[in-house]
Amino acid sequence: MLRRANIISIIVHRAAIVALCACAVSLRAQSTLQDKPVPSESDATQRLQERVTQLESEVSELSALVKQLQPSSPVPAGDRQSAVVHESVQSQAPAQAVTTAEGEKTLDFFHGTTINVGLDTYYEYNFNQPVGRVNLLRAYDVLSNNFNLSQASVILDHPPDLAAGRRWGGRLDLQFGQATDSLQGNPSNEPRPDIYRNIYQAYGTYIVPFGKGLNVDFGKWGSSLGVEGNYTKDQINYSRSYWFNFLPFYHMGFRISYPVNDRFALTYWLVNGTNQVEATNGFKDELFGFTAKPQKNLTWTVNYYFGQDHPDRAPATNCGPIPVQPGLCFTAIRPAPNGRTHIFDSYATWQTTQKLTLQIEGDYEIERLWQNAAPGESSTPSVVAGGAAYARYQFNPKFALAARAEYMSDGGLFSGINQALKEATVTFDYNLGGGFLTRYEWRSDFSNQPSFLTNAQGVLSKQQNTATIGLLWWWGRKEGPW
C-alpha cells in the first residue's frame, strides 16, 4: 500500500512539472516574439498549438494511470480524514491476520469439547415420619419433608476423535450437594475424602493404534458395576436401587477396553480398590468383563471383580518428629485382614420397541475377612445376592411411565444385619422441555427384619413408603447419556 502511494505521488509530481513546462514554453514563446523578428502570425500559432496538444496528451496519459492505481472504493473528494483512516486500516491488516490466526487456534483447541451443567432437586415425604427425617438405605434421596439439592454437576468432556486425527481426550465431572456426600463421604473407606469429594470423575483417555483401537483410561471414573448410574436424567427411576447403593460408586486406576468387533468388547481394570482414590492397602483390585450385542436392540454386560478392601493401616495423631502432610499420619494394623472380595455382576438392556425398554440385573458378592482363618477367628464369608428388573414405556415425547422391582438377600455387608430386602417403585415422567424433566415417584420398601426408622426414637419398622417429586434441569452440547 505504501508503494502504491509513492507511485501516485511521483505521477502527480510529474504532472505538475509538465504543467509548469507548458507555462514556461508559453512565456518563452512570448519573449521570443518580442526579441526576434516576428515570423508570420500563422506559423507561430501553428507551432504553439502543436506543443499544447502534445502536453495535453501527456497529462491525459498520466491521469489515466493515476485512476488505475487508485483503490476500488475511492475516498470522496475533500474527505482527507477518511483517507487517513483508510490508509491506517490497510497498514494494520498484517496484525489483524495474526489475531485471526490466534483465534482459529483457540477455536481448534475447544473443537469437540462440551461443557454441561445439571441440577437435580427433589422433595420427598416419608409416611413413617422418621426421626431426623432420614430415609434409611437410600443412596441419594436421603432426607424427607425437606426441599433438597441432590446434585449440582459440571461436566467438561473432550473425547478422542480419530476422524480428526486426535487419539487423546479427557473428562472432568465436578459434583456438589447431598449425593456428593453419599457418594464419596465415607471416611472408613477413603483416608482423605474431603480433598476428592467434589471430583466425581477425572480421567484422561488415549486410543492405542492396535487393531480396532485399544481404549485406555487413567484416573478416577464412576463404576460400571450395576445397570444404574450417577446422573438421574439418564435413569429409569428417580430414586436409586439397593444395588446401586451397595455396589462400588467409583474407582481410581486404569481401565482398558477393546472392541473385538461391532458386537463384542472386552474390558479390564486395575484399580486401588472400591470407592478408594487413595488405597487403604497395597493390594490392587482387578475387573474382567465383556459387553455383547447379540442383536442391535439388545446389550448384555458381564463383570467379575476381584479385590481386597480391608485396610492395613489406621489414622494416627502422632507420627513422631518427621513432619507429614495433614491426614497422612497412620499406624500399621498387625496382622492386617487379607480376605478377598468377589463380585459377579451382570445386566442387560432390551429395547423391545421404540417405546418400551426392559432391563434386568443380577448380582452376587462374597467377602471374607481372612483368607485362612486362625484359631478362634471366623472363616464364614458374608454374602449378598439378588437382582432387579425394570420396565419403561414412553407414551410420547412428554410422558413416560416406569417401574422397578428388586430383591436383596443381605448377609450384613449392606445394612449391617442379615435380612431380605425388597422394594417396588413406580415413576411417572413429564418432560416440560429439552432440558427440564419432572418426575413423580411412589416407592415401598419391605424387609423381614425391622430396619426402617419411625417417628419414635429407637423403634424400627419393617416397611417404609415414600412419595417424591424430582425436578431436573440440564444444558450443554453433550448429547445422549452423561
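The record above closes out task 2.4. Task 2.5 opens with a second protein, given below.
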Amino acid sequence: MGDLSNGQAAVSVLTSPAPPAVADAFVERFVVEPAPQGALRGLSFAAKDLFDVAGRLTGCGNPTWRATHAPPQANAALIDHLLRAGARLIGKTRTDEMAYSIEGCNFHEGAPRNPAAPERLTGGSSSGAASAVASQAVDFALGTDTAGSVRVPAAWCGLVGIRPTHGRLSVAGLTPLAPSFDTAGWLARSASLMRKVGVALLGEDTAGLPEYSLVRDSSIESRATPACAAALGPAFEACAARLSAIGESSLGVDLDAAAECLRILQANEVWTAHGQWVETHHPRFGPGVAERFEAARMITPDRVREAARQRAHIVARVDGALPPGRILCLPTVAGPAPRRDASPEQLQRQRAQLLPLTALASLTGRPQITLPLGRCDGAPVGFSLLGWRNGDLALLRIAEQLCPS
C-alpha cells in the first residue's frame, strides 16, 4: 500500500474468514407515489443505492461515504422520469461497495439472496436490484452498468437486464464510478416488461424493426466454460429458429487485451472521481474493492494513453464487424454465479473470466441485453444480444421475440 504525507495508507482492507451474511435486497424501504397517470401505472420499481432520492442518503454501499455526504435535495433524473410515467418507487437496493465490484457481496452489509440459486451469490454491483426483482418484491429495478454490473447479476439471477447505449439515459443524480463507461440500466423478469420500461425511458418505438442479422464468434463463445457453452446451445438454436439464421463472424478483437484496456481506463476514471475522497477520509474497504482502489491510485498517464489508443482500435474493429443491423449473440457470463462461501481468490478468478465477455459493450458504448435462456449446474446463466449504438429499442423488440414470456 502507498503512504500519504501523514503516514496513513491510502486504502486499507478489511477481511473476514466467515462467508457473507444474507442481506435484505433493500437498504431502505419506503414509498414514493407516482403521477396518477402514465404508461407504467400500476408497476413498482426500486433503485440501486447510487441513485439520489430526495431527503435520503445515497450510501453507495460504504459506511464512510454515508458519514461524509449529506442527503440530496432532489431525485435522480431517471427516478423522476419513472415517477412521471406512473411507476411507484418502493425503496433503494444494495450495491457492492462504491459499485466497484461484480460479485454481489458487500463486506459491510452482506450479500443479498439469489432467489434463483440460493447457495450462490447474485452478482454485482446491482446485487440488491437483481435480488429484489428475482424475489418479486418489485416489477423492475434501476441498476447501473460500468463493466457488467447489470448484465452479470441479471444473468446469475435468471432475469432480463440491459446495458443501454452509453449516454442514452441521463446520469444526473447518479454517483459516478467511471463516467465514460457508466450507464443506467434496468432489470425485469420478462422481456415484454423490459421493452415497456424502455419505451417509457427512451421514447415511443415508432420506427419499426429494421432489417437485421445475427452473428456469432467462436472465439468469444470459447470464453464460456464447456458446461455453460453446452447449456446455451439451445439459445443459439432458438435464435436461428425464431429470428433468423445465425452467421459466423470474427470480430478480430483480443478479449484479454480488451479486458485489460477496460480495467486501466476504468481504474483511472475511478481514481479521478473518488481519489480525493479516499485520501481525505481513508475509508476501509472489503477484499477485492480495496485492492482495486489501490491499483487505481497507481495507474500512470502513459498507461492511460496507451489504453485509450487500444480502445479506439477496438471500437473501430467492432464497428467494422458489426455495422448497424448486425447483432452479436454471445454468452453473458462464463459460468454460473460463485457460491456464497467462495474465497476472495475464487472471486478474483471469476472476475477475470467475466471481464473479457463484458468488455465489448463497455468499451464500445453499445447496448447489450441478457436473457435467461440457459441453466448450468442448476443455476442460471445468460444469453446476450449485443446491438448497435442507439439501437436499444430494436434490441428490446428482438429480445421480446426471442423470449416472449
